Amino acid sequence: MSAFRSFHWRWYDSFSRPPPFPICALAHVDGRRYVSRDRLMPGCLAVRCDAALTPHPVDHVHTLTTLGGLSIAGPGGASTGLAPRRRALALLALAASSAKEGISRDRAMGLLWPELDVGSARNNLKQTVFAIRHTLGVDVFDRAASNIRLDPVVVTVDLHQYEHALAAGAHEDAAGDYAGPFLDGFFLPNLREFDRWVERVRQRLELGYARALETLAVKARLRGEVWAAVHWYRRLVEHDPVSTSSVLGLISTLAAASEPLAALECFHRHAKMLRDEFDAEPDPKVQLAAERVRQSLSYRAREAAKSIASHGDTDVPSLPTLFVEPPRSARRNSGPITLPMRQRRPDAEP
Questions:
Q1: Are 265 and 230 within 8 A, CB to CB?
Q2: How far apart are CA 91 and CA 242, in angstroms?
Q3: Which 3-state string (H, E, C) describes 180-243?
Q4: Could you tell me the sign of the dihedral formed by the alpha carbons of 67, 68, 70, 71, in that order?
Q5: What SS3 string covers the chain?
Q6: With respect to CATH, is domain 62-177 assigned 1.25.40.10?
Q7: Which fold has domain 224-307?
Q8: Residue 221 in contact with residue 229, Cβ under 8 Å?
Q9: Fewer CB within 10 A of the terminal residue: the chain, N end or C end?
């Protein structure tokens, strides 16, 4: 910390007055890299005091995956030994649920050890934190925080990247960061309150993902990029095939892209799924949109028939026919077929 303090003062002395912007201080002292705590503030200015300094704050960065599953990987994607420790992974997920505040110790004890008294639950929490530090070989928790909070310098979380993209309005980045439901496939037996917490977080993240896809589809449609809108609407329907607004948007966009058959196919799949799984019918708005697509197809067929009738004198060469079977009516009215009788040889016996 003394190196940090001297570095800050030496950097400030180069200005006649305090700079009017946030500061992101990087220092390279004794072969180790140091980064100030405010380095993650948006709009920061990174100041390098060493020409050989790289922008990465530490050499050992772990990656915590919470979307589409729950796992933690070491530097370079190396596997760790935390996979069998289910409660340790759950504690990391609880700490990662809030990038700024983390989770209080009492809340973590109530979710992971509800059957124990306060003293036993606190002891289990300390042992779990120690096991995480010992297994990973690095302290992933922020010791300066009062709550259980992950240190962003040591561990990166896909959930934080996804939520930051949503907050910044980068909907395409958010759609790319969303790899699946929150803690998909992860389960702890006999922890109902933990399951309820996971379900609440999962619904919140899924709603943000659906809104991001819908925003991308609507903006593409307003820009006139119909096929881009079809792409985003298809992803939205895959995410939530029951949603009326999603299916309605896809049907109308496919119709605008001159793909009425694809629009009707989407409607039939939606109607079949509702009947098979929920014994229900599609929303009247969706049925009306599908009926309009059918009417447009009928109108196009009538117009095509009129166009062909108006060019009736067009000479179409006929192809040679090798065999033409008579119609059924001709065969039915022609009567029985009489075959000639074979003549008997003279020398044949009667």
A1: no
A2: 33
A3: CCECCCCCCCCCHHHHHHHHHHHHHHHHHHHHHHHHHHHHHHHCCCHHHHHHHHHHHHHHCCCC
A4: negative
A5: CHHHHHHHHHHHCCCCCCCCCCEEEEEEECCEEEECHHHHCCCCEEEECCCCCCCCCCCCCEEEECECCCEEECHHHCECCCCCCHHHHHHHHHHHCCCCCCECHHHHHHHHCCCCCHHHHHHHHHHHHHHHHHHHCCCCECCCCCCECECCCCEEEHHHHHHHHHHHCCHHHHHHHCCCCECCCCCCCCCHHHHHHHHHHHHHHHHHHHHHHHHHHHHHHHCCCHHHHHHHHHHHHHHCCCCHHHHHHHHHHHHHCCCHHHHHHHHHHHHHHHHHHHCCCCCHHHHHHHHHHHHHHHHHHHHHHHHHHHCCCCCCCCCCCCCCCCCHHHHHHCCCCCCCCCCCCCCCCC
A6: no
A7: 1.25.40
A8: yes
A9: C
Residue whose C-alpha is closest to residue 239's, from 208, 206, 217: 206
- Model pLDDT for residues 207-234, shown as the tens digit of each residue: 999 999 999 999 999 999 999 999 999 9
Span 110-141, pLDDT tens digits: 999 999 999 999 999 999 999 999 999 999 99
Would you place residue 341 in the very low, low, confident or very high pLDDT band (cuts 50, 70, 90)?
A: low
> What's the predicted TM-score (pTM) here?
0.70
219-223-225-230 Cα dihedral, nearest 10 degrees: 30
- Which amino acid is residue 192, in one-letter code? R
Q: How is the chain split into domains, by residue range?
A: 2-48, 62-177, 224-307
